From TrEMBL:
Gene3D superfamilies the record matches: 1.10.10.160, P-loop containing nucleotide triphosphate hydrolases
PROSITE patterns (alphabetical): UVRD_HELICASE_ATP_BIND (PS51198)
Domain UvrD-like helicase ATP-binding: 448-721
EC number: 5.6.2.4
Entry keyword Repeat: no
Residue numbers binding ATP: 469-476
Protein name: DNA 3'-5' helicase
Family membership: Belongs to the helicase family. UvrD subfamily.
Entries under InterPro entries matching the protein: DExx_box_DNA_helicase_dom_sf, DNA_helicase_UvrD-like_C, DNA_helicase_UvrD/REP, P-loop_NTPase, UvrD-like_ATP-bd, UvrD-like_helicase_C
Domain of life: Bacteria
One annotated GO biological process: recombinational repair
């Protein structure tokens, strides 16, 4: 290739983020000073070091402040010379005809010339959350006025996942208006012009030249991100705010009151046009790790790259105006860069330690404006910097004109040009992920270290011990071995050991694992409370009967009938609020105001019905399950009784502690005060019974709850392969818990299949399961997990209809296969199908509750996990507009295999 062509095509390597920063750094950049500040990074965790004291010391240094001030003044004060604007995201939507869609579906995977395949890799993938947010910034889910994107293709350069070009296809099927559309999403600045010519030229070839020109002429832009990097400038020295009074919202990440902030959003970042100020190196390093780049290489890149702060405007045209932004008008728009002001870091050494400490954990727009007010009031002289908007507008126009010309022309490179270009890019391999999938096993402790952690927990000496154990970490073994340790090594009488499990099934499993001449007391919490009443209060409760579910239902029906309560009030509603009244120790006044408890009657009717229900129980001489707990809690307050119970149950061992409710914790409180020794096992990430009053916070804060207590973490899963662990860790991380590690050999990545309705799911899943059963998979090894009982009944009915002619599956078999996610707690299987809750109209829950339930669902399978995801993307969290977890997982292609149901 001649020199001119080589320069025209540009070196691939320059398009890696590290090299772009190195190429654009100021001549005032000092590697020595940069390396000094780099010590404030934790390059193992890819975050700032957890020491506000060290950061305050760095900010107070006059040398650091002078250096950072010099760089910031150069970048902001003279952008024409020192800043380079780039286009960081572009969404293009194109309304098409059915014939256009057919051409794309049939031809996008076929290259012409064939050499294009050396440069581009194209594969079908998930649509991710593209249907979950509209052009107008509304992320409440898909609506029938918009296209329903059902297919997606990812185009990459030489397999480099960082340089992606997504093409989404709405084929009009199952859409009430048969809307057809194409949508393109890519990051222009990660591609060379040559690469974009190849991609758009390929689309032009697929759609046919004339038709491509027509479609592009009428295309719309739905998102434009532009930004610039400031190499050498460290984010903790950057304090920006806007003078635009219309901007009311601002937030920082990571969240947490005491977290040192890496990213600041100025404006509503979930839906509207906003500006973001963030640490470029940290963000890109985390992304490199996620796509599978070698950890040592990522660390080397971060260490050798200038600390960099990035300023980025994310423009969503439809958040401010209902008018369409046509692609052909792109260079003529004036992007609304907010009136940003930067406080010169030269002032920082003059600021008090307390004020700097506050700034490090809160860099929101209001916080920085308050900082400015503080400087004025204290008489500290300071300088403000502002970006030249004329430069910004000129740079935008030049850049957007350039990209528009590339897209419109789409002049596909010739075969020889592609071959020569690829030959110059062989050195790019160092930036491409290894073929081996990224797993959580990298750097994992070996099996013997995991066992050592278990043994340390089993033989713990503290009076109060909590074991935080993730899915598949051997919780039941830990409990049985703890009993074995107490009985055989500590010579403790088994009769003063009490083991409480969450279900009768778990109780039976525990009993099978323990064989002693004198057995410990093993039961559920409710059964144990009943035994305490009969043992210690025999005069009142020796012959008491317990009301079963049917008996309780009959009694509640009598109450509704006698009091002539509103017909829409049901026995389930009354049962739930009566239970919450006891288990949460809350008044009816508080419960009636809680949206979690739906009750179609008045406060007075609720109170009267409860009094009548209690009277009817007394007349019959019965108690219900809630009464067992309340009566023990109430009677333990009697003088000496708690001590007697504690002496007879000196060693209390509890399973599934995260699901214990308030009244259970209060009972334990009284026994702890009376000298009991507590050993409890649980996982806050699996706390899925908050609607029953489950309170995992005591387990999370165990050392505060039980003074002198000791917490052990068992982070190694014996049951789950690393591929499923990787997916579940995405949830654990969002919840703020320790990640898990797989001790099992690598297995199959989870599968994701996408559907527009539950009807489509069942049409695919039932024959799929039938084939697995015929191939020898046993019924008990397959589970379909669904969110609601109503949806479960629907799927059971369809399964029964499908298998009825052959009698291949009985009703009992089907009941075993299809269960709700809540009932799946503690269940293990080889093959698991998790149905997206959004297919059925379930009641929205909080993000945390939904994440915990999804964590339980995704950790049941030991071999094959299938996630059936909804394409319509309806929002399910009731407390946040954040992206749904299954949509996030779908976009992390390295974590799963996509099932193309059409092939």
């Amino acid at each position: 290739m001649n020199k001119r062509k080589y320069n025209q095509y540009k070196n691939f390597k320059k398009h890696h983020w590290r090299n772009k920063i190195n190429d654009n750094r100021s001549n005032s950049f000092s590697k020595k000073k940069n390396d000094k500040l780099l010590k404030l990074f934790d390059t193992d965790k890819y975050a700032y070091i957890d020491s506000s004291k060290s950061f305050i010391s760095a900010l107070k240094s006059e040398e650091n402040a002078e250096y950072q001030s010099q760089l910031l003044n150069q970048y902001i004060g003279n952008p024409e010379e020192h800043l380079k604007l780039d286009l960081d995201r572009l969404f293009i939507t194109m309304r098409c005809q059915k014939k256009d869609i057919e051409r794309v579906m049939k031809g996008i995977l076929t290259f012409s010339p064939m050499s294009t395949g050396q440069l581009l890799t194209i594969r079908k993938t998930t649509v991710g959350s593209v249907n979950g947010s509209s052009d107008r910034g509304n992320n409440r889910g898909w609506s029938s006025t918009r296209p329903l994107y059902k297919h997606a293709f990812k185009i990459a350069i030489n397999g480099d996942q960082r340089r992606f070009f997504n093409v989404y296809v709405a084929d009009g099927k199952n859409h009430p208006e048969n809307l057809t559309s194409l949508r393109i999403d890519f990051i222009p600045n990660r591609f060379t012009d040559f690469e974009l010519r190849a991609i758009f030229g390929h689309l032009k070839y697929v759609l046919k030249h004339r038709r491509y020109d027509q479609i592009i002429r009428n295309a719309r832009v739905t998102r434009v991100d532009v930004g610039f990097n400031m190499p050498g400038v460290m984010s903790p020295f950057v304090y920006a705010y806007t003078t635009n009074s219309k901007v009311k919202h601002s937030c920082c990440f990571p969240t947490g009151t005491h977290s040192l902030k890496e990213t600041t959003y100025i404006g509503k970042h979930t839906r509207y046009t906003h500006t973001i100020v963030y640490d470029k190196g940290l963000k890109e390093s985390k992304r490199d790790l996620k796509i599978g780049l070698n950890r040592e290489l990522v660390k080397k890149n971060l260490d050798s790259t200038p600390l960099t702060t990035r300023i980025e405007l994310r423009y969503r045209p439809y958040s401010s105006t209902p008018k369409s932004l046509m692609l052909k008008q792109l260079p003529n728009i004036t992007l609304p860069l907010p009136k940003l002001r930067f406080i010169d870091p030269k002032v920082l050494p003059s600021v008090s330690n307390d004020t700097l400490g506050d700034l490090l954990v809160d860099k929101t727009n209001d916080a920085v404006k308050s900082f400015k007010t503080y400087l004025k009031e204290t008489g500290i002289k300071f300088k403000e910097l502002s970006l030249d908007t004329r430069w910004f507008n000129r740079a935008c126009k030049r850049m957007l004109t350039h990209y528009l010309n590339l897209i419109q022309k789409a002049d596909k490179p010739k075969s020889e040009e592609v071959k020569e270009y690829c030959a110059t890019g062989r050195h790019l391999q160092e930036f491409i992920p290894e073929n081996k999938p990224k797993t959580s096993n990298v750097g994992n402790p070996p099996l013997q270290i995991a066992q050592k952690a278990q043994n340390a927990a089993i033989k713990g000496k503290s009076q109060y011990i909590a074991i935080i154990a993730g899915a598949g970490s051997g919780k039941t073994r830990v409990i049985s071995e703890r009993v074995n340790f107490l009985v055989n090594e500590k010579q403790i009488d088994p009769r003063i050991i009490t083991v409480l499990a969450f279900t009768n099934t778990a109780v039976n499993e525990m009993k099978l694992r323990m064989t002693y001449s004198s057995m410990p007391n093993i039961s559920t919490f409710s059964a144990w409370c009943l035994s305490l009443l009969k043992i210690y209060l025999p005069e009142e409760y020796a012959d008491i009967d317990v009301l079963n579910k049917e008996g309780q239902k009959e009694l509640l029906l009598e109450v509704i009938d006698e009091l002539e309560i509103t017909e829409s009030a049901t026995t389930i509603q009354l049962k739930n609020i009566f239970s919450a009244h006891v288990n949460l120790l809350k008044s009816f006044e508080k419960l009636m105001g809680d949206p979690a408890f739906k009750l179609n009657c008045t406060l007075a009717e609720a109170k009267n019905s409860h009094l009548l229900y209690k009277k009817k129980k007394q007349n019959l001489g019965v108690i219900d399950y809630d009464d067992m707990l309340y009566l023990v809690y109430k009677n333990l307050k009697k003088k000496g009784l708690a001590k007697r119970v504690a002496d007879a149950n000196t060693y209390l061992i509890m399973d599934e502690m995260q699901d214990s409710n308030i009244i259970q914790w209060r009972i334990i409180d009284q026994l702890i005060n009376s000298g009991i020794r507590l050993f409890c096992v649980g996982d806050p990430a699996q706390a899925i019974f908050s609607f029953r009053g489950g309170s995992y916070q005591h387990l999370e804060n165990f050392e505060e709850y039980a003074k002198g207590g000791k917490v052990f973490h068992l982070d190694h899963s014996y049951r789950l392969p690393s591929e499923i662990i990787n997916v579940s860790n995405e949830i654990r991380t969002q919840l703020g818990y320790h990640p898990s590690y797989a001790l099992k050999k690598s297995g199959q990545k989870p599968f994701i299949a996408e559907f527009s309705s539950l009807h489509e799911v069942t049409d695919w899943i039932i024959p799929y399961i039938a084939n697995q059963l015929r191939d020898g998979t046993r019924t008990k090894e397959i589970k379909i997990l669904i969110r609601t009982n109503r949806a479960a009944k629907h799927i059971k009915r369809l399964l029964m209809e499908y298998f009825k002619p052959s009698n291949f599956l009985s009703a009992e078999d089907i009941d075993q296969i299809v269960i709700t996610m809540h009932k799946a707690k503690g269940i293990e299987c080889k093959v698991c199908y998790v149905i997206d809750p959004r297919f059925w109209h379930c009641i929205p829950d909080t993000k945390d509750n939904d994440l915990r339930l999804m964590y339980v669902a995704l950790t049941r399978a030991s071999e094959e996990l299938y996630i059936c995801r909804s394409l319509t993307g309806k929002r399910i969290y009731k407390d946040t507009k954040e992206k749904y977890m299954l949509d996030i997982l779908a976009e992390k292609e390295e974590l799963h295999e996509f099932i193309d149901r059409l092939n």
